[in-house]
Amino acid sequence: MAKIKHNNFIDTVDTVFSSAKDQGLLHLHAEGTYLNGRTIKIKGSEMLHFGTTGYLGLEQDKRLKEAAINAINNYGTQFPLSKTYLSHPLYAELESKIELMYNIQPIITKNSTLGHMAIIPTLIRDEDAVILDHQAHWSVQNACQILKLRGIPVEMIRHNNLEMLEDKIRMLSGKSGKIWYMADGVYSMYGDYAPVQDLLNLSRKYPQFHLYFDDVHGMSWKGKNGTGFIFDAIGTLEENIVVVSTLSKTFGASGATFFCSDRKLREKIKTFGGPLTFSAQLEPASVAAAIASCDIHLSEEIYEHQAELAKKTAHFSTLLSNSSLPLVSENDSPVFFLGMGTPATAYNFTKRLFSEGFYLNLGIYPAVPIKNTGIRITISAHNQIKDITELARAMDYHFQKAVEETGSSNEKIRQAFRMDISTKRTSKKQQSELLNIEKQTSIKNINKQEWNKHLGTHNILDWGGMLYLEKTFSNSQDQTNKWDFFYYIIRDQKMQVVLMTFCTFGIWKDDMLSTESVSRHLEEIRKTDAMHMTSKVLSIGSLFTEGQHCYIDESHSLAEQSLRLLLNKLEESYNSLGADMLILRDFEPGFHWDEMIRNQGYFRIDMPESCVIENKNWPSIDNYGSLLSTRSRQHFNREIVPYEKFYDVQIKDCLNQAELERAYELYCNVKDRNLAINTFSYSREVFENMNSCPNWEFIILTLNNSAEKDFIGIMFCYKNSGIVYVPELIGMDYNAGEGFNLYRQLLYQTIKRARELQIPRIDFGISANFEKKKLGASIKPKVAYVQARDNYAMELMQTLQNETNIPRLSS
């Protein structure tokens, strides 16, 4: 009954990436016949390169190049054979030299992504469990999906949240063998670190706790022999720690390495680790380049490289600390992330730097939350001190310009990244003096006629309907049914309404629009932890209503400015309320200001479609079938009309106490069964207030000639001023109605009642589109725009969706 179209995560990512591509900032091509590391040519312009992950610049070292050339001449471009059978002649030397660097035998893989896919399914046993840092690299998270096929628990925590991590350890400790925590050593976007010493302390406290580190961004520029951040931090590789590192990026070659102190485990992975067995081995040129790099790492020269890079990194850090630029994470890594807040500011800033001759990377959703869009700058050995100084100067100048041109501020950006705002630089005020915004917290303070003119013709949004919502949800004792209301009216200087809307602030389930399988999984947890995976949400409209919640006079010359002003005010409320998410809903696809909203730090998602019947000239009910398509008419004549005779239909304005209890029971039947749109159940107060409100009425169906004395179906309907009829909620006795097409009959009796009242529009709500369409409903697609503090909840929902869709292997 409640099947809905769920939003596709890939579509959301594609929308964000497409916007950046259209701006000319992603999927670019380097040009020219020669690369030197310091500069790069893009679209005919020579630019200083601040986007590499080859931090020591070894990929341009003459010795590595010559070694690769000689290997091709001696051994060919590749050695097309699985390494399980036979390694080409250079492999043994590479393995020997890496062992000298680490004092541990390595496993060498084609790259780190294939390495994780080879290692993780072999390393993790069926009795084990996994906890992921939600910013762990995609390749690690993707490899962990394989574990779910075997029923291995894979949990996720917020980034570097040790309290949450310890809670997960306690939860898993009684029912798991080893508990593996998977994290990056140096995180690729912000350049921040895993809290290694704290993690080691946890491993001592909980003997089951094991650590899996991906340290590809910590390699070479840190540690003895350039063995990386993690080895520098841990000293000795204990049996409860494994590390994946790289021969690419800073190392200057290709491939990845795996280290563990358990010899048997190492041999098991090497003997049969998926891609290690079935994938091609590293090309001779890559192995030869890696050997040449090993020679550098095993000499004193590596420390000269590290010192030179550290000098340049420190210089850049000093320049940034003397500016007003919002550096998100202060540390000594060569990765820097400047917060821009909105995509619009990031696009503007990046294009400004491009035009000045500086290439740097855009950091955008899903790598970071959409409101935490920013710029990733990497410092390498190729960069000269004067280049770095000039970059810092250009960034400081253009940052303020970009902020002002996109209507942002240093304060807003720092707030988005939860940074100290005491040192902010004041930017020009963007609010137009041509518009005035009025904010109210009750519909009682708003003129009834004015409200009804602009928003009151939709759903249950007339003045009386809003009064019902406030009475029902403002003072609820149940926190899951308690909402704060905010009304915004924006007028021009002539006091003409340009924009009008209302918002609610309350608790939502994070899986509200996830698949039913995800919600079933989470509802089991909520039996003991009712608030598990919930968020505080500030949203246009409310969970009780759907349709047009925001009126904008699109013909007005200040329409776009009014929307920008609203977004600014909503963001202020979002921050002051401490909300986790900010949601703008329900807009039609192709909304006029779609791009502007997305560039202000929102991503667009598909909402469940609405079902609407509109008919200004109702025919006689006997001829209703004539309005339907041939196929729908056949359904109507076969599945609807013949079953009407089994029911006694009553329309009631008020229910007695026994009827109200029965109505609530039937509502709960439907709610408990319907997880396609997973909201909190409404309290009895919702229905008691309906009973005392003159705009509500109840369509009640009782079986004729049945031992069942109570009614078995009820539709809770709102009459909006003779304009809209809204069957808001439904209740059914599934057992008693079996075989009598109860749901379809409730839909049909709702249509008959709207015709009887001569109300030209029925808002049939969301879900069960197929059934409603067969009765003449039009399907109206809707979109929403979402902003979140972080990606944790969304990424976890996606992970759970993947997990619940995986077919289980039989034992």
Automatic annotation (TrEMBL):
Pfam families: Acetyltransf_6, Aminotran_1_2. SUPFAM superfamilies: Acyl-CoA N-acyltransferases (Nat), PLP-dependent transferases. This is 7-keto-8-aminopelargonate synthetase. Its cofactor is pyridoxal 5'-phosphate. The keyword Transferase applies. It comes from Flavobacterium limi. Keywords: Transferase. Residues 47-394 form the Aminotransferase class I/classII large domain. It comes from the Bacteria. Residues 631-772 form the BioF2-like acetyltransferase domain.
